[in-house]
């Protein structure tokens, strides 16, 4: 599995080198990318390879609430066609993973692909199925009322605990997530809450020493951090999150 690794900044140009990425049990891969960036296909391929090498089940955790939305159903059909014949068993859980993921499916320590973190985060905040948890965070029951500042930290904390639980049940956890932070500013306080929460979850996952953080563009992965990689703090002058003010 070859990825580009940032090596240094020279004359304000980021230099990279091609390196083999070796995945091990207990690790986590977080792949960030825009729509149609190729992140899902990349993770599907890696999931197949590792599940075959380790002789463990290969699971796909779908987080999208379909309902009677024709566009969502079309997305589901498209993803199912993309996974056809690749050996995935599909699970569905739209929020509160420890309560809604069938624990029997995790007994054999599978390789699991979660698609996607942005949708899961939105479900945690907006889904009617998650009202008990939303009330525990102090989320308003009506969208006409803006959520209080600081709620993103509470939601992100619980989400990170959920994902840590899931990681312990798997040989390898692969997570696809949305790169939505280069778009225009959020149009309303609720959208801003989703953006802040998702960003905090990304940051929390990236601080896990077992996490490979990938940025995928046009199907090509760039590894910003991962087990055994040299610190970007020294090479690029970038502060780790723990050192940021």
General description of the model:
This protein has 245 residues and is α/β, with parallel strands linked by helices. It is built from eight helices and nine strands. The longest helix has 18 residues, at 151-168. The radius of gyration is 18 Å and the shape is globular. It starts with a strand and ends in a 9-residue tail after the last helix.
Instruction: Detail the poorly predicted runs.
Output: 238-245
Number of helices: 8
Structural class: alpha/beta
Rounded to an integer in angstroms, the radius of gyration calculated over CA atoms is 18 Å
What is the N-to-C order of secondary-structure elements (H for helix, E for strand)?
Answer: EEEHEHEHEHHHEHEEH
What integer is the average pLDDT? 88
Shape: globular
Range of strand content:
15-25%
Number of strands: 9
Placed side by side, the strands forming the largest sheet appear as: 5-4-6-7-3-8-9
How would a textbook summarize the main sheet?
7 strands, mixed
Q: Helix share of residues?
A: 25-40%
Distance between the termini: 35 Å
Task: Produce a short descriptive summary.
By secondary structure, the chain is of the alpha/beta class. 38% of the residues lie in helices and 24% in strands.
């Amino acid at each position: 599995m070859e990825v580009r690794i940032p090596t240094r900044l020279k004359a304000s140009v980021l230099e990279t080198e091609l390196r083999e990425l070796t995945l091990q049990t207990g690790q986590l891969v977080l792949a960030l990318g825009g729509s149609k960036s190729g992140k899902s296909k990349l993770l599907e391929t890696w999931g197949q390879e590792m599940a075959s090498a380790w002789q463990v089940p290969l699971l796909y955790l779908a987080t999208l609430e379909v309902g009677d939305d024709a566009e969502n159903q079309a997305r589901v059909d498209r993803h199912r066609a993309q996974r056809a014949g690749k050996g995935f068993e599909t699970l569905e859980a739209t929020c509160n993973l420890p309560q809604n993921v069938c624990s029997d499916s995790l007994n054999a320590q599978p390789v699991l692909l979660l698609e996607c973190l942005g949708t899961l985060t939105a479900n945690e905040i907006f889904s009617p199925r998650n009202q008990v948890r939303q009330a525990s965070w102090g989320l308003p029951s009506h969208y006409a009322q803006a959520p209080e500042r600081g709620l993103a930290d509470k939601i992100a904390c619980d989400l990170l605990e959920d994902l840590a639980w899931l990681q312990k049940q798997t040989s390898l956890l692969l997570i696809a997530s949305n790169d939505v932070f280069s778009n225009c500013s959020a149009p309303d306080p609720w959208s801003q809450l989703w953006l802040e929460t998702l960003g905090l979850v990304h940051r929390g996952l990236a601080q896990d020493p077992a996490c490979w953080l990938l940025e995928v563009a046009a199907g090509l992965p760039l590894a910003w951090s991962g087990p055994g990689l040299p610190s970007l703090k020294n090479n690029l002058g970038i502060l780790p999150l723990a050192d940021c003010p």
